[in-house]
Amino acid sequence: MGLILSLFVTLIEVYSIALIIYILMSWFPNARESAVGQFFAKVCEPYLEQFRKFIPPLGMIDISPIVAILVLNLAKSGVFQLANWIS
Length: 87
Fold this sequence. Notes:
Blueprint: H1 2-25, H2 35-52, H3 64-86
Helix pairs in contact: 1-2, 1-3, 2-3
């Protein structure tokens, strides 16, 4: 059971890093139109879209990715707590 929880935490961390890379790509012109950018868009946009439905942008700033990463960190903490309860 510990292996499954460890794998799940690792996946959450990798996805968080993918989100950060995707967010940083918006700072560079045409980075999201590249093949790598399109890959990250396919992976990250479905998750980010859930938050954009409820959190409108503040002017030119989209804070939904910050909330999305926060939710992933809360999920990771929840997995750690679950692991403590099980063991």
